[in-house]
Amino acid sequence: MSFSMLRAPVCKAAFSTPSVSQFALRNQFRRFATGPASSEPVKSGGKSWLIGGGLLAFGGVGYYLYSTNPDLFKEAGTAAKSSVQAAKVATKFTPAQEDYQKVYNKIVQLVEDAGDYDDGSYGPVLVRLAWHASGTYDKETGTGGSNYATMRFEPEAKHGANNGLNIARDIMEGVKKEFPWISYGDLWTLGGVCAIQEMSGPKIPWRPGRIDGFATEATPDGRLPDASQGADHLRSIFYRMGFNDQEIVALSGAHALGRCHTDRSGFDGPWTFSPTTVTNDYFKLLFDERWIWKKWSGPKQLVDKKTGTLMMLPTDYVLTQDKSFKKFAKAYADDQDLWFKDFSKAVSTLFELGVPTQQFVSSEPWILKTKEEQEEK
Question: Single GO cellular component annotation (predicted)?
Fold first, then answer.
């Protein structure tokens, strides 16, 4: 039985609402049937259908279809959820920008209340969460990206590249409880925006509209960069997402933040002397310091010869060796404003990977205010 046979009936039954015509919603259903839906009940028009586990309870015919093809119902539920989001956009039935600013402000509190964690800030790990939730996108298949927040599920949560991100997800869970209406994909990417901006970085244009997906949509391992590899590997990973050499280098500058941990990646140490502040020091240090291979039992990495306290990964050092990468890395080392501009654009693009344009609540991304800007006002 083809999925197209279910589209019109499901749309008609599930989205009967006085504010949006059935015809318009049916068209949106067809246009935005893109992937997995939330496991939460979807309510509309005084009716409720349970989507979790692939079940849409709407009568004997529905039960028969589910019992013969449960995967089909997961697909239908996902399309329904995506259409709900599209319908919200069409009818402006969405939280306002001010509501997302409140979520941003809550995240600011968490970033500042890190205590003894790492260098006293949760900012870097929140950036990493947003990055890894988005960087799984495959432009050829249209899978992955931030739309479905599938790192909530195993096995994706336990992929090697995601080691330690349970800390960031747990932090965000507290925000989710206070603002249950926000999707995980929106929450995680907003956390990355907040962290970058509050750590003296550039403004990151952002807009909501992501929906939550099923465990069956978790992406396969191997889609995120392997820090032990070289230029060919970087291009393979980033070209798959749709980025070019300049954007690869610009995004690599996020290593100005945070540090590696032996119990997570196996590598050890910070990239810069100010790992909780967004600067172009990462690029400056690449060219200004002398880097030598670290003598230890861990994976291959470099340390600065002068102090031995900083480190660079093989994928970092290749930016000084590859002719194309080096050109951009040197430009960013010489001009922080240039890097801020290119980094902002690349990160905004990264965080939107995998999200159908029609799901966004705004045609243009927003610029959310920092804590300092709000206090000044």
Answer: mitochondrial matrix
Query: Residues 178-196: what's their mean pLDDT?
Result: 98
What order do you get walking across the sheet with 311-312 strand by strand? Answer: 291-293, 302-304, 311-312
Residue 338 neighbours by CB under 8 Å, 6+ apart: 331, 332
Looking up tokens 């995980």 gives 184
Sequence-distant (≥ 6) Cβ neighbours of residue 88 within 8 angstroms: 94, 361
- The span from the CA of 120 to the CA of 275, in Å, is 10
Indicate which residue of 49, 206, 271, 339 is catalytic: 271
Q: Which domains are present in the chain?
A: 4-91 (no CATH), 97-224+346-376 (1.10.520.10), 231-340 (1.10.420.10)
- Please identify which of the residues 132, 159, 188, 255 carries the catalytic annotation: 132
pLDDT tens, position by position, 235-253? 999 999 999 999 999 999 9
| Residue 271 annotated in active site | yes
Between CA 253 and CA 197, with CA 166 as vertex, the angle to 5 degrees is: 35
